[in-house]
Amino acid sequence: MNSLKANLVFPVFLAAALAVAGAALPAPAAAEELQPLSITLEGYDYPYPVQFLPISIEGQDLRMAFMDVKPAAGKDDGKTVLLLHGKNFFGAYWKDTIAALSARGYRVVVPDQIGFGKSSKPDIHYSFHLLAANTKKVLDQLGVHEVTVVGHSMGGMLATRFALMYPQTATRLVLEDPIGLEDYRALVPYQTLEAAYQAELSATEQGIRNYNKNYFVKWQPEYEQYFAMPALRQRLSGEYPRLALSAALTYQMIYEQPVCHEFNQVKARTLLVIGQSDRTVVGKARLPKELLSKAGQYPELGRRTAAQIPGAKLVELPNVGHIPHLEAKERFIAELLDFLK
User: What residues does the AB hydrolase-1 domain cover (predicted)?
Assistant: First the structure.
């Protein structure tokens, strides 16, 4: 392992925005009070049982974690919803969405992509095509042949790619504040892995907390369990450089593999749910000053994307940030269930 891989110490997607994470937060607990957490989240409880699918990629034997939640007793309608997490997230943050869907009779499959959550963290070439193919293997293993695929943030980019690759499987598509509604290559200067490593060295505990707060219009203490705390504890793991490297590689995947130019090819019936206060940009800290007020304008991006996807329905949520299924939980679930009818 070269010196870069051995010393990369903080996920690139987080660090890219640390310079614009501004709001002050209460003083965090001292680092020595935190207990290390493994990079595959052993010791971190998920809301439902976790299974693993063995996958071999580039000669490496890996495991892909997923939850397979059955419908509530007596409610099975024979339909399945696939939930895809974002870049700085993992399957557990779908807890309330899973419960609502299961209660209404849906089977719910929630993978942790390779490189994320409880899944393996390999040094491989990451691509949305690969992640989509891995996800299809999970569904095949479970005997699921048709799904509504719901993607949040980076999961929206993956959900789009999945729908394009497997139109017979993804009959409906839900995009929740997806990143990639614009081509970041045209906005954000390219950053090498070496340069990203240098940026990571300046990351602080307070910066991590501030960045996570910026996902929301109104921060709630309950969000801590999904964001800042796991990230801070994983940094204390002896295996943390491996997680940091996979984070850097998946940042490059997002930057280099846009899906926004293919929205007009989506065949699945589509719902877009857009928090109107979301201003997420991948690599925002490196945006030229003249573009700061133009990039990441989710109200405009949502309307433009809805116009590109044939027949798409757009739901705009005022005063909501990047994660509607947490910040506007009841409204998000209501819109999702209505779309699934």
Answer: 80-327
pLDDT of residue 303: 98
The token duo for 279 is: 């201003």
Residue 195: per-residue pLDDT: 76
Question: What pTM was estimated for this model as a whole?
Answer: 0.91
Question: CB-hemisphere CA count at 13 Å for 158?
Answer: 29
**Cβ atoms of 26 and 210 closer than 8 Å:** no
Residue position matching structure tokens 């699934």:
340
Give the chain's end-to-end CA distance (angstroms, integer): 51
Would you say residue 34 lies in a domain?
yes
Q: Kindly state whether residue 221 falls inside one of the protein's structural domains.
A: no
- Cα-Cα-Cα-Cα dihedral of 133, 257, 38, 89, to 10°? -90
Q: Considering all CA atoms of the chain, what is the largest pairwise distance in Å, rounded to the nearest integer?
A: 57
Provide the pLDDT confidence category of residue 198 given band limits of 50, 70 and 90: low
As a whole number of angstroms, the distance between CA 101 and CA 72 comes to: 9
pLDDT tens-digit series, residues 223-261? 999 988 898 899 889 998 899 899 999 999 999 999 999
On whether the CB atoms of residues 248 and 11 are closer than 8 A, the answer is: yes
CATH number at residue 310: 3.40.50.1820
Higher pLDDT, 20 or 92: 92
